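Collaborator request log, item 7. Partner lab (contact: R.S.) asked for a structural prediction of histidine kinase to inform their binding assays.
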Amino acid sequence: MTVTIGEMADGFYVADNGPGIPEADREAVFDAGYSTSTAGTGLGLRIVEQITDAHGWTVDVTDSTTGGSRFEISGVDFID
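Returned to partner:
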């Protein structure tokens, strides 16, 4: 799997070329305890959402151009 990090006008993204997240599950992935893996805790993306909320940012998941998932963090104020 390849992970790519990039800039957006008001934030940044983290994308991969993995299997992706079905559109029907995209909101649920941020719920505490949600996991598609028996070995997962379902806390990782919940923690990401809590961190972005604490900063006044938003996190959204969409399709990556490389076939996997893309997590977009927006509302970020960059410091020069």
